[in-house]
Amino acid sequence: MKKDHEDFYQQAVRQIEEIKVADPELSDAFEFYCSILIAQREVSLSFQPDLCGFDAEVYLSRSSKGLLLLKAQDVAIDRSRLNELLENLCRIVQERRGDVIPAGFEVTSLSDQERLLTKGVIENGAILQEMAVQAKIEYDVFQLIAEQAISPFISRLAEELAGHVDQSKWLRGYCPVCGKEPIMSKLEEETGKRWLFCPFCHTEWLFKRLACPFSENDNQESLRYFFVENDEAHRVDVCDRCKRYIKTIDSRQMNSGINLFVENLSTLALDIVAQKEGFLNGSLLP
Asked: Which of 3, 44, 191, 222 has the most crowded CB, counting CB atoms within 10 A?
């Protein structure tokens, strides 16, 4: 598939290259995710989703009923491209933590189970836990590899299906396409509307301005936010009820074209402050 505009991966890599110069302390983390994004982009550019059985009415009906657009059974993955991406991801992880992937581990054994892997990533995390045990790999590492391997396939599908989300009615704290929790939110430049960002399929969706996306708590007495010094474009929204937080970018105070995946990486200082205060964000990238 040819893309004439700067796609998500290309934009993310370019922005990471720009910010890592200004923040050398995080250069190792930036390099790690740059390598992953480059490997994923190769798949994204060459993978064309099979939409032969696509029924617009079915997807519109799912969204209107509060159901996810995608089910694991809807996802057709190119096994050869998945195998190549898994090999690249394992290599990237081994270069930094070679001890977490056992000698003799066969990537093909995973790509041969692409349907089970997809179901584990999208619908049932217990499946991933069982697969990690069988592969003798730490669960956090296995989950990272599995999710990043499936992500570009889901992301391409999400591009095709995003228009079938009724943004005015969804207003839920999880992705309308794949069901993952958001990792960032942003305030729209012109209207101030609040959008959430899925780190898995890269979907952005509209959400209530004054509510916690994790508990959907809208009691203003238990919701608050804070900034770090000299940076009012970024803030942390916290919920005292569920003790979760989400970082928010105010687009009105920044240049356009921000990549929320990159913004999450570049604002790790906010995560440190929030976690010291006892708040958690389950979607924080490892």
From this structure: 44
- How does pLDDT run across 247-257, given as a tens digit for each residue? 999 887 776 67
Say if residue 36 is exposed, middle or buried (CB neighbours under 10 Å; 0-12, 13-18, 19+). buried
Task: Tell me the C-alpha distance between 213 and 220, whole Å.
Answer: 14
Strands (E), the chain: 184-187, 194-197, 204-207, 223-228, 231-239, 244-250
pLDDT digit string, tens, across residues 103-157: 778 888 887 888 999 999 999 889 999 999 998 999 999 999 999 999 999 999 8
Write out the DSSP string of 138-162.
Answer: -HHHHHHHHHHHHHHHHHHHHHHHG
CATH 3.90.1670.10 occupies which residues in the chain? 167-276
CB-CB contact of 139 with 128 (8 Å)? yes
CATH number of 167-276: 3.90.1670.10
At residue 250, the 3 state secondary structure works out as strand
CA pair distance 37, 7, nearest whole angstrom: 11
In this structure, the dihedral spanned by the alpha carbons of residues 92, 93, 96 and 101, taken in order and rounded to 10 degrees, is -130
Q: Which is nearest to 249 in space by CA: 205, 184, 158?
A: 184
